[in-house]
Amino acid sequence: QVQLVDSGGGSVQAGGALKLSCVVPKDIYTGFRMAWFRQIPEKEREGVALRLPGGEPVYYTMHYADSVKGRFIISEDNAKNTLYLQMTSLKPEDSGMYYCAAGFPGWTGSWDDARSFPYWGQGTQVSVSS
Question: Which pLDDT tens digit goes with each residue over 49-63?
């Protein structure tokens, strides 16, 4: 079983920032699609950001949910096999459980389809107060 390790959640006030981290096994980090999802209360799990594999970081493609564009950014440290999600200008509606996920390479469906991600982290809680 493959286990991703995500962390970095916490409690902040609206307008604040958090940086989430996800440590990934090397082979998966390099060859799989890597993404952040979140589960907001009373809503379906939704894709937040995606990094496609491409070898050199400059060739990687990033995708973002419309609701987080301009506020969240996905990044990585290849030497540490670690994926990050930098979240700024946080809003109360961003509150929820955030998950790191690794998806099948070569997937041609929607980028945020959770069914294509077989490996997940435990989740890290983000709470944003008004």
Answer: 998 876 555 455 789
